[in-house]
Amino acid sequence: MTEPPAARPLEGITVVSVEQAVAAPFATRQLADLGARVIKVERPGGGDFARRYDTTVHGESSYFVWLNRSKESVTLDLKSPAGRSVLERLLARADVFVQNLAPGAAARMGLGAEALAERHPSLISCSVSGYGTTGPWADRKSYDLLVQCQTGLVSLTGNEHGSARVGVSVADIAAGMYAYSGILTALFTRATTGVARAVEVSLFEALAEWMGQPAYYTRFGGTQPPRLGTQHATIAPYGAYRAADGKDVLFSIQNEREWVSLCERFLGLPELVTDPRFATGSDRVAHRAELNTIVAGRFGELDSAEATRLLDAAGIANAGVNDVDDFLAHPVLAERGRWRDVPIPGGATVPALLPPADLAGTSPRMDAVPAVGEHTDSVLAELGYGASDIAALRVDGVIQAG
Question: Binning pLDDT at 50, 70 and 90, where does residue 189 land?
């Protein structure tokens, strides 16, 4: 007899989030994936401004569809006393509160960590900010690319012709991941000690952590890693090379055994193994230009399929350089069953990737992306508001007009 699937790990946990854009929604969507009930508080008259970043997914924003499945949307005007009263009722029943409001806004509304701890001692609060809630930059607005610039990341990306933005919202994603793991840690701490600890994450400090290796390299090496396109700044050969059919193949040498195999079985130049220019990893980096000339010459003799076959036979990790269409059709995702259909506002469904962490015996929650304010009435009814109360809130503009 087949056993029923186990309950999702966060079933019974309620998260209230006053969130917008990417970082906080990314954190709370992952909590929803694990079964938490996530009540997303949005502004009346448009909601989360990420809903309007683009309209490419059947009229919906690609960002919003990615970040907000399995949530309930409630509209509230938090500048009004009535709206804040509704939020207080929500927080009284919640386990976690997440916010990434503009600098100082949460504190002005009494939603700072200390104020919340006084009113709701079992509530775990999580603040996601740009540069922290204290310090000289606490009042500065911050967005993903600004933080990429401030941490020096942009100075590492691109090529000899100039720097470049990382192609995804990496500062937001980093902050969202640390908020997610911080909340899970706080939930564990509350469960084992009874103490609810606040969580604070900034985009700047999250991405600063990811800059650890180039920071050490620069501090102790005297210069920062150079911009080299698809080449690795501190390992050679490691990068993309163009084959005779015009397709790029990227490969990586990670150790001396692989270097010997590359020379003997792919390049057909076993004498390079003892060439003093390439004797160590540091030597190969120092003589990168000469080494690249040799490697590029060999790729120019092969089409991409043959180059891949020879690299595979030599035990060298390699991959074609995909575009996004190639990624969408990737056989690993298809054959491992990683796509699930998720409804979006308007009645369409779109494929969404399963969360990357598989928990044995459970399945992630993959429910609909909400329309703005879709769950306002039902959530207010749970809080004890009658139909006339809800109608009055709508007339007063506290919640979204129907």
Answer: very high
